[in-house]
């Protein structure tokens, strides 16, 4: 069974550098153990990183014990759906790569919200 993105096609990898994903396989795949639902592929901005740190999730500081080198603006990363939604409501949501965002994201946010923040707008 293939994994689908929010557009209904095959999920495309989000990033191999830095290596992202709940499974650290480059894709925003998920399962029942992924309580954060790391399903939204985003190109993080400094504004988002600052916001995330203020709400208790510092994504800039390296955490080698979790194989996490820390993010910089411009990196692509599989974000928790609820954190992205929270950032969207605060007006600081980073751009989304729809082809790399898991269909499960639609359990948390609307396709319209994701499309409004898409890095590349669909034609």
Q: Helix amount, in percent?
A: 10-25%
Helix-strand makeup class? alpha+beta
Count of alpha/pi helices: 3
Q: Look up the CATH topology.
A: Phenylalanyl-tRNA Synthetase, Chain B, domain 1
Secondary-structure element order, N to C? EHEHH
Largest pleated sheet: 2 strands, antiparallel
Low-confidence stretches: none
Distance between the termini: 28 Å
How many separate domains?
1
The CATH top-level class label: Alpha Beta
The CATH architecture designation is: 2-Layer Sandwich
Tally of DSSP β-strands: 2
Q: Strands of the biggest beta sheet: in what spatial order?
A: 1-2
Radius of gyration: 13 Å
What is the residue-mean pLDDT, rounded to a whole number? 94
The backbone outline, from C-alpha atoms, is globular
Strand percentage: 5-15%
Tell me about this structure.
- With 123 residues, the protein is an alpha+beta fold.
- It has a single domain (1-118), classed as Protein of unknown function DUF2237 (Phenylalanyl-tRNA Synthetase, Chain B, domain 1), CATH 3.30.56.110.
- Helix content is 20%, strand content 9%.
- The chain has a two-stranded antiparallel sheet with strand order 1-2.
- The longest helix is centred in the middle third of the chain and has 9 residues, at 46-54.
- It starts with 37 loop residues before the first strand and ends in a 7-residue tail after the last helix.
